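We emphasize that the prediction below concerns an isolated chain of 585 residues; any contacts that depend on oligomerization or on bound cofactors are therefore not represented. The input was used exactly as deposited, without trimming of termini.
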Amino acid sequence: MRIYRSCLLVLFISSISSISSAAASLPDRWWPEFPLPSKILVSEPLNGLPVAEGVVLQTLCGLTAYTARQQGGGEMLWSGTGDIPSYEEWLDRITVHTKAPVDRTPRKLWDLVDRYRDQGVLKGYILYRADPAKRALYEGTPEDWSANVATALCAPLGGVAVEERLEETAKTHGLKLLADTRGKDEAWLWKEYGDKLSHSQLGRQDPKNAVMRDAIVAMGAPMVSSTDALYPEALRAMHPGSPILGWGMGMEDEQTGPSSRWGLIQTATNWCVNLAPCSAGKTGLDYPFKPFAAAPSAPENDDPNTRYVSFIMTDGDNVQWLMMNFCKGQEAQQYWANPARGKIPFGWTTCAADLLQLCPYTLDYLRDTATPNDDFLLYGGGYYYPDWFGKDRCDPGLLAQHARRLNKYMDKCGIHSFAINAQQWDGPEAMAAYETYVREMPALNAIFTVQYYPYTGGGGAIRWIPRPDGKRVPVISAHYALWAGRGNDPHEGTPNHVAALLNEWAAKPVKAPEDRFAWVTVHCWSWFKQAPADAALSAEEVDQTAPPAEAARGYLPATWCAAQLSPNIRVVTPAVLADKLAGGV
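Result of the prediction step, given as a token string:
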């Protein structure tokens, strides 16, 4: 009832002041801008340091970037990334593109502390206590939040976060105590400093994880990382359309549901490092990005019985994944670095709008190394549920504002397909959201939608949304899913199971043009083992926590599925699927 009354009050105030949502606009850029650094210094590898030392390094990197942003320039630190080849690629591309001088000689942590202490950038340390809870990362409940409190205070106090066991070391390097956060939690931080920290980004991180604290400090963000009563209070205080930096504690929907309702976007940046130097200079819409190649023209139809199927990878809204383990490295062998990539037409969901602001070099790399069979979709423009977006702000125009700015990024990148995850894929709120996207994205060719649970909740059904020019845009629900552990689920399972479902679908008579089109969502984290088509389903299933060497996930399972399809099924890119569907074949 309190929310309902506040909505009425907002609508009343809006009407008497002649302010409408349609006239309002969110800023085109939702990540902060950083100036080009005068120099980039590379530290010793972050992934070779203990957690406590890693926190010192990360907060120091953030402090140099925060100082450069406040002063309009200066040195920045690059957290050494050791054997993570993607980040080495981004640093190489930064060097070429920006011409910023880079000193690649790895510098020891405490030598860097001395350097920035002497320069006056570093004024002291904020003391915290490590979380003693015996638990895995992002699981359970932290017993001590002071690492997050200390991190958030680094920007306003000009310090680094120091765990109590490193206090004597910090003192020997001439650092003075600026604040003692031991025994303090994020509720204390919000009460005492909530109005002194940024309301354009909200930081969330497990206090056991050292990573991503450079961005928290560089952006001057507060930290609220649980899903208790403080979380919606902090969300309400953030500017609408702002990003959640990192990833917090709690179930996925417990995090994304409230942020969606308050009109914020999740970004899954909790394993990102070096976001400030990666986004320095002209990035975002100012970046001179050469668009992705146009999709190949639709193949000629030789037979009215031909069916069209697209495979589309999940989780492309995950910024840290695309920046770290998606493009290059051992784990990337399951995805973009797979030697078989290009074998079949394939759809890759991306967080292109975020990456163009945070690390456009990732998009450059994807474009430069793409094959004609690689097709790109924008996944949501952040992770949120469009049917819930902004509901608690009582602003029906908020999604339209977000869609308008997303349209600029899609045009910039040459992307015309959109993927989204809705709570109820064809509920009235979701249908209204699709209408908003179609209205605000004039070049949109299709919306590929999944339901939060199950992803295949739409069963391949298609809805049509009229465009202002009189044409219609299809909203296509996922028909099937390559997803481990689904047993005999009617729409989800192993490569052979999904192939059998597709073949059964393709053998049915065509009653409407839409009956000839389907897409399969490929769960990027599901491991499978290749098996003959007539093998039991169990032959393809593997232990997801300890997959055998011959197992694969991501791209290869899709190729295994495609190889089992009937001759009348043609695998095409999502762009071609949309083109053929819109043309009625």
